[in-house]
Amino acid sequence: MYRKLTLVAVLLLVSFASASYAQVQRSPKFSDWAPAEHLPPPINSEFDDQAPILSKDERTLYFTSNRPGSVGGSEDIWVSTRKTRNSAWRTPVNLGPTVNSPGIERLRSLTPDEKVLLFMSDRQGSTGQTDIWAIVREKVNDESKWSAPINLGPTINSVNSEVAAKYLFANSGHVRKLFFTAVRPEGFGGPDIYESNINVDAFEPPVNVFELNSPSVETCFWIRDDGLELIFISNRPELTGDLAYNELWVSIRDSVYEAWSPPVKLGPNVNAAGYQDVNPSLSSDGRTMFFASKRPGGISTGKFDIYMTTRRRTAE
């Protein structure tokens, strides 16, 4: 089925996902994030491990790594599973040469139905420095049936860098968007966060989400499935491009039709001052966040390791 998959077919799959999983929700209330915990081997290794994403049942963890077994020693997408949500993680497995290439495959997001995965790559066929690509599958938990990667096309990808991307399906499917980050001439400076409305067979021209952006870097992000919380990384107010200042920031809103609140930097339980904290992702219930960091305490100095933090749901 997926041998000749096109971008239109991917968008149709996304449309079905939005109809099945989107619903009207009020914004839940949460406690502060607990102190971050380092994930032990076999998830973390002496190599760079980053961009983690947890499945809805919390028994599968996808992430990017350049550990041995990666194609050409590059960043590849890996997957680990566990028997229950409280069991130890099994040895990670490379998704294989259909998905991974000698270039970068840095994981970015998974649709709520877990059938469409987005990643960043500079692989052959990219139009810019890095593009956003998609892979799809028919059955959840079948890691051997991912399609060959599909480029999201010239409305989203440009001759510059597209870095991160995530679909949003909200308000019973009335809101269907692709959020992504890109370096564009009309931006505020560095990568900015953009959004594009999705029609049945096309992306609409992207719009800069100006209330989230600044002259500094705004990039790798995660938008909660209800569209009411967005966690991203920024090195603001740094203007030199020094990525060592990248930290996690958050913005919220009461409705998907409202503007985002002024971003606030997450506290020291999450961010480690002077070290890169990047690639956040939330569990489907919004109570667990994974991210990557080069902070002290990792397996190898100066390498990305994966961390997690939790919060609890509070009374409305």
Secondary-structure map with pairings?
Blueprint: H1 7-21, E1 37-38, E2 49-54, E3 60-65, E4 76-81, E5 93-94, E6 105-110, E7 116-121, E8 131-136, E9 150-151, E10 162-170, E11 175-182, E12 192-197, E13 207-208, E14 218-223, E15 229-234, E16 247-252, E17 264-265, E18 277-282, E19 288-293, E20 305-310
Antiparallel strand pairs: 1-20, 2-3, 3-4, 4-5, 6-7, 7-8, 8-9, 10-11, 11-12, 12-13, 14-15, 15-16, 16-17, 18-19, 19-20
Write a structural description:
With 316 residues, the chain is mainly β. The protein has a single domain, classed as Tachylectin-2, Chain A. Helices cover 5% and strands 33% of the residues. The chain contains one helix and 20 strands. It has one helix at residues 7-21, and strands at 37-38, 49-54, 60-65, 76-81, 93-94, 105-110, 116-121, 131-136, 150-151, 162-170, 175-182, 192-197, 207-208, 218-223, 229-234, 247-252, 264-265, 277-282, 288-293, 305-310. The protein has a four-stranded antiparallel sheet with strand order 1-20-19-18, with no helix packed on it. The protein has a four-stranded antiparallel sheet with strand order 2-3-4-5, with no helix packed on it. Strand 18 and strand 19 (288-293) form a beta hairpin. The longest helix has 15 residues, at 7-21. It is globular, with a radius of gyration of 18 Å.
Separation of termini?
Answer: 46 Å
Low-confidence stretches: none
Q: Looking across the biggest beta sheet, what order are the strands in?
A: 1-20-19-18
Shape: globular
The count of β-strands is 20
Rounded mean pLDDT score:
91
* Domains, number: 1
What CATH architecture label applies?
5 Propeller
What's the tally of helices? 1
In CATH, what is the class?
Mainly Beta
What is the ordering of alpha helices and beta strands?
HEEEEEEEEEEEEEEEEEEEE
Oligomer description: single chain
CA radius of gyration: 18 Å
The description of the largest β-sheet is: 4 strands, antiparallel
State the share of residues found in helices, binned by percent.
Answer: under 10%
Given the helix and strand composition, which structural class is it?
mainly beta
The named CATH superfamily: Glycosyl hydrolase domain, family 43
Strand content: 25-35%
The third-level CATH topology is Tachylectin-2, Chain A
